[in-house]
TrEMBL record:
Belongs to the GTR/RAG GTP-binding protein family. SUPFAM superfamilies: P-loop containing nucleoside triphosphate hydrolases. One of its GO terms (biological process) is negative regulation of autophagy. GO terms for molecular function: GTP binding; GTPase activity. This is GTP-binding protein. Keywords: GTP-binding, Nucleotide-binding. GTPase involved in activation of the TORC1 signaling pathway, which promotes growth and represses autophagy in nutrient-rich conditions. It comes from the Eukaryota. InterPro entries: Gtr1_RagA, P-loop_NTPase, RagA/B. Component of the GSE complex. Residues 221-262 are annotated as: Disordered. GO terms for cellular component: fungal-type vacuole membrane; Gtr1-Gtr2 GTPase complex; nucleus.
Length: 335
């Protein structure tokens, strides 16, 4: 199954940088040496067995943009699964922003005719360059404007930067929309989490380490640990939008909305990718990680040929050996 993803936005907005970070294990600092994209750069990424992402990184110089809208309209905008439009917040210049919005509207209109079912994601990118105290308001006003200009098309917006975990979260969400039968996977995962009395179970895609699905004990997502609820543990796969993760300073009433770090998956991804790189330099094969902390234990291992699973427990009575055995026994179920 092939899914076409269009990555569009003005020249220098950061399209190739985010692609390099997510799919080629680049570090943010290394993106400064990337050159401008000439016309469209195609790449195919095998993702989860038979799902192939057909990524179109569309160079953003004006001449190319005009070409996509005019002579190449049909070729570019047909059979699209996802449009990711990257808005550059650098300087927040209103003239550049207005120009960007006009280009976005042209792309959206071409998409509505040629791929009416495509999902649309707008990334308000380089949020790190906006003063921290203004991020929330800049984001809110830009999203409001984009929603108005999108005229009936449902759009999903993210504040992103290559310098923190926001880019990782946005891409995990985007990829999530493309995975077939994701609700079955979520059901299996929550059963697995309950069986292991786990605090959290996460399935990652093997090469990018993007989160495909997760199941988190709901009590860990509340500030006091949900101690008032003594019933069976409930699990959730839903992802709360978290100010801290979006790069906004937390508002006082949300300050401690969760006991879990909102950027934990992005950090795990970076850590495992670096570890894998070191292993390959030593001509050694990376297979699994066991961590025994003072208050928790974690186990990360291969689940299927294209995925890893991570199981986190906070109950000291649970042996890591039992978790390992359960991961081994669950493999057939997840194949
Ligand atoms: P074209 O290929 O011309 O369409 O440009 P592009 O959209 O692919 O831009 P590219 O990825 O080449 O990035 C341009 C510059 O922006 C690079 O120097 C990146 O390091 C920088 N950049 C990308 N993302 C971010 C970000 O989140 N924050 C900051 N501060 N800089 C970024």
């Amino acid at each position: 199954m092939k899914k076409k993803i269009l990555l569009m936005g003005r020249s220098g907005s950061g399209k190739t940088s985010m692609r390099a970070l997510v799919f080629s294990a680049y570090k943010a600092a290394d993106t400064a040496r990337l050159g401008q994209t000439v016309d469209v750069e195609h790449s195919h990424v095998r993702f989860l067995g038979n799902l192939v992402l057909n990524l179109w990184d569309c160079g953003g110089q004006q001449a190319y943009m005009s070409n996509y809208i005019d002579s190449k309209r049909h070729t570019v905008f047909t059979a699209v699964g996802v449009l990711i439009y990257v808005f550059d917040l650098v300087g927040e210049d209103s003239e550049e922003w207005d120009k960007d919005v006009r280009s976005y509207k042209d792309c959206l209109s071409a998409l509505q005719t040629n791929s009416p079912d495509a999902h649309v994601f707008c990334l308000l990118h380089k949020m790190d360059l906006v003063e921290a105290s203004r991020r929330r308001s800049v984001y809110a006003s830009r999203v409001e404007e984009l929603q108005k200009k999108s005229e009936g098309t449902t759009i999903h917006c993210f504040a992103t930067s290559i310098w923190d975990e926001t880019i990782y979260k946005a891409w995990s969400r985007i990829i999530h929309t493309l995975i077939p039968n994701v609700s079955d996977l979520e059901r299996h995962l929550s059963l697995f989490a309950r069986t292991n009395s786990a605090a959290e179970v996460v399935v990652f895609e093997r090469s990018t380490f993007l989160v495909i699905s997760r199941s988190t004990a709901k009590n860990l997502l509340s500030p006091n640990g949900g101690t008032e609820n003594k019933g069976p543990v409930e699990y959730t796969s839903s992802d709360e939008d978290n100010d801290e993760l979006l790069g906004f300073p937390p508002s006082s009433d949300k300050e401690s909305s969760s006991q879990l770090s909102p950027g934990r998956f992005g950090k795990i991804s970076q850590m495992v990718k670096s570890l894998r790189l070191v292993c390959s330099k030593l001509q050694s094969h990376f297979q699994a990680i066991e961590i025994q902390g003072a208050t928790f234990a974690a186990y990360l291992d291969v689940l299927t040929p294209n995925t890893y699973i991570m199981v986190v427990t906070t109950d000291p009575r649970i042996e890591l050996g039992a978790i390992k055995l359960n991961v081994h026994l669950a493999r057939d179920q997840f194949e």
